Amino acid sequence: MVTAALVRDGWDAVLVEAGEEGCRNARRRGVEKVIRASLEDLQFREGSIAAAGLFDVLEHVERPLDFLRSIRAAIRSGQEGRLYVTVPAHRRLWSGEDEWAGHLVRFGPADLFALLEKAGFRVRYHSFLFSFLSPFVFLSRTLPHRLGLRRRRPGAESRTAQIRGDHKRRAGPLGRAWERHLSREVARIAGCRVGHGTSLIAVCSGSGEAG
Question: Are 114 and 68 in contact (CB under 8 A)?
Fold first, then answer.
């Protein structure tokens, strides 16, 4: 979905996706340039990539430092190269939903920045995202998890329907309030930073040497 949005906005984006279903979904959404492979399978020339995006990827990776170093080698050095990263934020928000989604970690800013800098990136900008969701995630997911209350997990089809429902635009007063909040948050991010939220974004340059 992120790659499709980039393409609609005029960016020349290529999706690298290991799963067949993800590749098919991308093509259905209008993404023409899809490579079915893991990053480890590909042999990018050093400095051949102007920008890369890891959107909710890093929390699934077992060896994130090695993964980031391989990307660092492919991204151009200096101001010409960019890496965009989003991850779930705050270890204190950990819940069964993270386990179900296959997350290995939720990141605090210091954790993420140290990992990126050790891999040879320099963090140029960062902000939290979805500040509106923090209390809801804590009350509906984190607190029940800490109290030992386990949600019944639906089957694959029900899970797919749930994911689609979670990401669709809301109607009514709640939907309008959510859209207003997102618009205000986008405006804030364009000028400064958001101080809290359920996700974290970092924009990095390819300068610096891998540690």
Answer: no
